[in-house]
TrEMBL record:
Lineage: Bacteria, Bacillati, Actinomycetota, Actinomycetes, Propionibacteriales
Originating species: Kribbella hippodromi
Protein name stated in the entry: Transglycosylase domain-containing protein
Region span, Disordered: 735-782
Residue ranges of every copy of the PASTA domain listed in the record: 688-754
SUPFAM superfamilies recorded: beta-lactamase/transpeptidase-like (SSF56601), Lysozyme-like (SSF53955)
UniProt keyword list: Carboxypeptidase, Glycosyltransferase, Hydrolase, Multifunctional enzyme, Protease, Transferase
Length: 782
């Protein structure tokens, strides 16, 4: 067939200019020539200048590698990636794969330098006839350079420049290719190319492609498989076998026939490969990327948020996010799939995704802060019964919901603060069903507060003058309001802060108001479970801990936060809290029906006003958990009438609604754990003692006498002054119980100092004496 005359003149002109540019540009180094100066207006001078401006060395682009997040037992939680890639050495790629890619992309790869003159001239003539770049004729080295330049591009403009159909871009690629050929051996170049190339359907690099399409490693590829993958690089989307198996097979067969033509394979091998199906759909592994496609999406997003806040991974959140998706990290977490399954099974047993109300539970390990499980009723997604909110965490985390009002589970922190102040567990307060607190002042860290309209009531039947244990068993509001007033709100707030509690919606400290002990602030299950875990760990609070290790692509450990634990309260104080909350789960307590197994358990119910949310938080010495059931969205309607587990609720309570979720979750989670017991509180914490009753310090004898009577002591008041400079009077009391180091029924005298000075308590058979020590704590003698 005769080519048009115009085409003839163009071809001749192109060849002449090609030879001229090759000589004038001085680009014959290493036996190479530059062929693309035939474009009109692209002069030899321009070519020479372009070549001179280009660097003499090619900077290798770092491979974007996928990062993986694993559970504690090695289960894959999620893959984070911009490009799903696992780099391998060329020795880990099947020889037949190496032969297939060379045969179809650059059959003279091992014979020529950076440029294949035959292929380039053939492409030049065909492109000149059409008037544009239609056929590349690029060597594997040139292709590697092109892909690398695209990878390096950071802006849309840089990407456009790296892929432009211009001869200038081809000249630049060739100059870089020359540099690459000088820097690396042919096998090194082929290895880099195979690891960098796009093989379609989200698979980057030969190893990921082999695993994705065939569920094998690159070293195990067969002829038919290798030919299919080799054919993909020309058009990864067009020849994708998961979208168009026929086109993929046609392209694969072209590769097989080319390999036969080059005598890389035998006729029998070719015929056998041609008869092989292009893929087995059952062996295609989905390239599921991101937390949303993993088995634990909410927990995963919590982990990613933690990582994105780690300055070791970048200066900004954007840099860190990019690093996580490209650095090939191995991230191991605290999640225990067995405990997670128990938590989710409990949620699924007591609720449904389509309920109006939502349920959530978090399980934490005392003494480490390890978050073992995190489950909720609504699944991840945007369909009915799904959500993107994580109901277990605060708003400072990706998808964090912001929690719910803590309710009466807050009373545990009032108990702890009172024990710290010296109030014994048998401390009694008259607790009527309704009390008038309109004129009552509560001491805060910055002064005092009061509520001019506050007249709270109890929600349960109570003992008229309960001890701390009895009040906890019945969750007596009026008792704990009066106890918080006597303890002061500041000690409660400070202790709660030490235990990781703050408003999960605003990030602000808990509010010091009259109703503080009834739980008006918003907290999350992960916060509350970690706080209660501190009681189980005898006062050791540990910040919730999810990420146990991070290693880079070379296996080197990267800086991450480890266990972050501190002694937030004395062990004796925690022992006292455990003794009180243990009785909540014994006969007579609101949590008595939630008791199971042989280990000691402790817990506390929490019901918000109008039952907009209900809680149960509890623990053994091995695991702690907090479960909540609540209205799904602000402004939070009462739960009564909403659906839970497919049925409308007629009642809602911490013990009856959230409690069963806690119970079955913990019952499953604790399987396999040994039986454990709490440490019994000291007699001082249980019954009180002079040396541990500082709340009477500074009082007049009558007030101190009343306090001691409330604590269960027999009290008599002595008149006069022991030391006019130190004391206003003395209080003598008889403790009918066995005290530390004192005989049963012994008479002990305490004298009450003025102001901040502390008198020295003495045995009543001896005259009091000595000066005050000013430490705010009396010392008793038997």
């Amino acid at each position: 067939m005769r080519v048009r005359e115009k085409g003839d003149r163009g071809v001749v002109q192109s060849v002449v200019l090609f030879l001229g540019v090759s000589v004038l540009s001085g680009a014959l180094a290493a036996g190479l020539a530059i062929p693309f100066a035939g474009l009109a207006g692209f002069t030899t001078q321009k070519t020479s200048e372009t070549l001179q401006d280009l660097p003499q060395q090619f900077d290798e682009v770092p491979l974007k590698q996928k990062s993986q997040i694993f559970a504690a037992d090695g289960t894959l939680i999620a893959t984070l990636a911009e490009q799903n890639r696992v780099p391998v050495k060329l020795s880990q790629v099947a020889p037949i794969m190496q032969k297939a890619i060379v045969a179809i992309e650059d059959d003279r790869f091992y014979e020529h330098g950076a440029l294949d003159m035959k292929g380039t001239l053939r492409a030049l003539l065909q492109n000149q006839s059409s008037g544009s770049v239609q056929q590349g004729g690029s060597s594997i080295t040139q292709q590697y350079v092109k892909i690398s330049l695209v990878e390096k591009a950071k802006t849309p403009e840089e990407v456009a420049a790296a892929t432009a159909d211009t001869y200038q871009r081809k000249v630049a690629e060739l100059r870089y290719a020359v540099a690459v050929e000088k820097q690396y051996s042919k096998n090194e170049i082929l290895e880099k190319y195979l690891n960098l190339a796009n093989f379609g359907d989200g698979a980057w690099g030969i190893q990921q492609a082999a695993q994705h399409y065939f569920s094998v490693n690159a070293s195990q590829l067969t002829l038919a498989q290798a030919a299919m993958l080799a054919g993909l690089v020309k058009n990864p989307t067009g020849y994708d076998p998961t979208n168009n198996a026929k086109r993929a097979k046609d392209r694969r067969d072209v590769v097989i026939r080319r390999m036969l033509e080059l005598k890389v394979i035998s006729l029998s091998q070719a015929n056998s490969a041609l008869k092989t199906p292009v893929i087995d759909p059952a062996k295609v592994r989905p390239n599921k990327l991101g937390c949303a496609n993993g088995p634990y999406p909410f927990y995963c997003e919590y982990v990613v948020s933690e990582l994105e806040n780690n300055p070791a991974f970048g200066k900004s959140k954007t840099e860190r996010s990019n690093y996580l998706k490209t650095a090939g990290l191995t991230i191991r977490t605290s999640l225990d799939p067995k405990i997670q399954a128990a938590a989710q099974r409990s949620i699924d047993t007591h609720s449904k995704p389509t309920d109006q109300a939502v349920a959530a539970v978090t399980i934490v390990e005392p003494g480490t802060g390890i978050v073992k499980a995190m489950a909720q009723s609504r699944q991840y997604g945007n369909k009915r019964g799904q959500t993107a909110y994580n109901y277990n965490v605060g708003k400072s985390y990706a998808g964090g919901y912001g929690g719910y009002q803590i309710g009466s589970t807050m009373k545990a922190f009032t108990i702890a603060a009172a024990i710290e102040k010296g109030f014994p567990l048998n401390y009694k307060i008259k607790a009527p069903d309704t009390i008038d607190l309109r004129d009552t002042k509560f001491q805060t860290c910055n002064g005092t507060t009061r509520d001019p309209s506050y007249q709270p009531s109890n929600s349960t039947k109570n003992v008229p003058e309960p001890t701390m244990i009895q009040a906890a068993q019945k969750s007596t509001n009026t008792y704990f309001l009066l106890l918080s007033q006597q303890t002061g709100l500041c000690p409660i707030a400070k202790l709660a802060a030490k235990l990781g509690l703050y408003n999960a919606q605003s990030g602000e400290p808990l509010q010091q108001v009259a109703s503080m002990t009834l739980g008006i602030d918003y907290v999350t299950p992960v916060q509350l479970s970690a706080a209660y875990a501190a009681f189980a760990a005898r006062g050791m609070y540990c910040t919730p801990w999810l990420i146990t290790s991070v290693k880079d692509s070379a296996g080197k450990s990267m800086p991450t936060r480890g266990a972050d634990c501190k002694q937030a309260m004395a062990p004796e104080v925690a022992d006292g809290v455990n003794a009180v909350l243990h009785q909540v789960m014994e006969p007579g307590g609101t949590g008595q029906h939630l008791k199971f197994g042989n280990s000691d358990l402790a817990g506390k119910t929490g019901t918000i006003q109008k039952a907009k949310a209900v809680w149960y938080a509890g623990y053994s010495s091995k695991l702690a958990a907090a479960a909540v059931v609540a209205d799904a969205s602000p402004p939070y309607a009462p739960l009564i009438g909403q659906t839970l587990n497919g049925e409308k609720m007629r009642d809602a309570s911490g013990s009856g609604t959230a409690g069963p979720i806690w119970e079955t979750a913990m019952q499953g989670a604790l399987k396999g754990y040994p039986t454990t017991r709490f440490t019994a509180p000291s007699s001082t914490v249980s019954r009180g003692n002079v040396k541990d009753l500082p709340f009477v310090n500074g009082m007049n004898p009558d007030d101190a006498s009343n306090k001691l009577k409330q604590a269960g002591f027999q009290v008599t008041v002595a008149s006069g002054t022991v030391n006019s400079e130190e004391a206003a009077g003395t209080v003598a009391y008889t403790d009918p119980r066995q005290r530390d180091g004192a005989p049963d029924g012994s008479l002990v005298t305490i004298y009450i100092s003025n102001g901040n000075k502390q008198g020295q308590p003495q045995n009543s058979t001896k005259p009091p004496g000595g000066n005050g020590n000013g430490n705010g704590r009396g010392r008793g003698h038997g």
